[in-house]
Structure formats: C-alpha cells, structure tokens
Amino acid sequence: MQLFIGGASAGKRDAVKQRFPGAVWWRLAPGQRLHEVDVMLPNTPLVLHGLFEWLTAALDSDFSSDEWRAQWREDLQRLNQTAAEDNVALVIIANELGRGLVPIARDQRRLRDLSGWFTQDAAAHAEQVWYVRHGLLQALKG
Parallel, antiparallel, or unpaired: how do β-strands 136-141 and 128-133 relate? Predict the structure, then answer.
C-alpha cells in the first residue's frame, strides 16, 4: 500500500495519476467500511480517495475514537491482504489537516483528530508514504 498525503490542492491526485496511469479510482462513500471496497481488479492499481468526506461522516456516529481506530486497523489489514492476493497496488490519498489553525468548533477539532489517527494507522500499514506539497513529492517512508 502507498499513502499520498498533503494539503488541499497540493498535487496529490496529479502525482498519483502520473505514477499509476491505469488505476481504478474509488471514492469512499460515507459510512462505507474499507474492506467493503469491491472494485479490485487483479494486477490493476486501486486508488481510494474522498477520505475527508468519508471521515466527516464518522462525526455523526456514536463510535468513540478508539472504536474507530480499531475498526480502521482491522479494515486496513483486510484490505491490504485482499490487495496482496490479487496483486493490486493499493493507493490511499489523504488530506493533511494538522498544519493549520486549530478550529474553535469541537466537531472540526475531532475531525482533525480522526484524520490524524487514520493517516497514522494507514502509514503504519503502508510500504511507502509520500508527502505532497506544491506538486512536489517527498518520501517519508519506503
């Protein structure tokens, strides 16, 4: 798995399109479990995007942060396993939310927390992690 992370309009999509030109793109639906992504084609890269909106939907849940993290870890492991079995290069695009001002609204602070925890967990599973800024890529892992 590879994780591309950066701010809004940093060039993440362009970087992924350039590196994985024949990839299947899948926008995560609010409330969708990661392991429910069923568009994997053998030997074809799969790009998961729409993470910000997907995480925003988590704010309406009664799950605690620890429950979300446990679910994500399980789902990331299952997703990685399925991708490996089908020889699928799995790519996740995530927004960097931690470099700006801390919002006053409680739900917006929780969204940043959830995003940070998700990207930490995804980075732990990823073979490569890329930080994208101004269209430039910096390897953080791998």
Answer: antiparallel
